[in-house]
């Protein structure tokens, strides 16, 4: 990639619109669109977006325990208003159920992948 393409890639990841990304990269919108039509640039862009999403997911995972602990403290604190405890309880139930569902799906997916490896696709 050229230095301008590298700058355009960084701008695409940090600017809210393509127009603003082009401006931040010091190129025209037409040039940016041409970059996005290039398969090599598109591959680098997709790779960068994937890495960004993975980083965000890692940060979210790291925040789960403190957030759930905070909600649990509110639920268990008799000095908190009932509305705060109810809202915290609802949040704990909602997120807890989602986490259980995702964990179950992940376990099933791992079992299916293991079955596929064990059977070598014979079924």
Shape verdict: flat
| H/E series | HHHHH
| Computed Rg | 23 Å
Q: pLDDT below 50 for ≥5 consecutive residues: which ranges?
A: none
Query: How many H/I helical runs?
Result: 5
Class by alpha and beta content: mainly alpha
How much of the sequence lies in strands comes to: under 5%
Helix content: over 70%
Q: Give a short account of the largest sheet.
A: none
Average the pLDDT over all residues and give the rounded result: 92
Number of strands: 0
End-to-end separation in angstroms reads 44 Å
Question: How does this model look, in words?
Answer:
With 123 residues, this protein is an all-alpha fold. It has a domain at 61-123. It is built from five helices and no strands. Helix 1 crosses helix 2 (18-25). The relative contact order is 0.06. The mean pLDDT is 92.
